[in-house]
Design brief:
Length: 165
């Protein structure tokens, strides 16, 4: 059981790291680069990203992080390994914060951008971009911080797990 607990915690940490890294990469490079482009390029690229990101590789990190963290919590529910549980639960809470932001802010903005249609048919590209960009970027930074906090909690849980053994 000890090996299974450690393996699930390691897998949860890795997948949480993938998720945190994704949001961090947007915050420190993708959105900064797109910020320097014209309105048509910005809208076109964001529409393409929002379509292409929905793939299995994204699902492994985004869905795997919460699934594996939940399994890890269940495996650490009893016994000497229980001291790891508060950190795993904290990671679940922080992931929940990130998930709520994603569901309530970023995805609806992505959907509005998609619903606007092809960039060459949008009458007010500047207005659409203004409505989207600032809010999306601000809340992406918050979800990057939340998911990085979750990663830190799981990393500390790994340290504690090593002390138990």
């Amino acid at each position: 059981m000890s090996v299974l607990r450690t393996a699930s915690l390691l897998a949860a940490t890795v997948t949480m790291g993938l998720t945190a890294g994704l949001f961090y990469a947007y915050a420190c490079s993708v959105m900064i680069a797109l910020g320097g482009t014209d309105d048509r390029t910005f809208v076109d690229v964001m529409q393409r990203i929002n379509t292409s990101i929905l793939n299995g590789w994204f699902g492994i990190g985004f869905g795997g992080a919460i699934l594996l963290t939940g399994v890890t919590a269940a495996l650490h529910w009893r016994g000497a390994a229980r001291s790891v549980l508060p950190w795993v639960v904290a990671a679940i809470v922080l992931y929940g914060v990130m998930f709520v932001i994603t569901s309530a802010v970023n995805v609806p903005l992505n959907n509005q951008l998609a619903a606007a249609g092809a960039p060459d048919r949008i009458a007010d590209l500047a207005g659409l971009r203004t409505h989207f960009e600032g809010t999306w970027v601000r809340w992406n930074i918050v979800r990057a911080v939340a998911s990085t906090g979750a990663l830190g909690c799981l990393a500390w849980a790994l340290v504690l797990e090593g002390r138990i053994r």
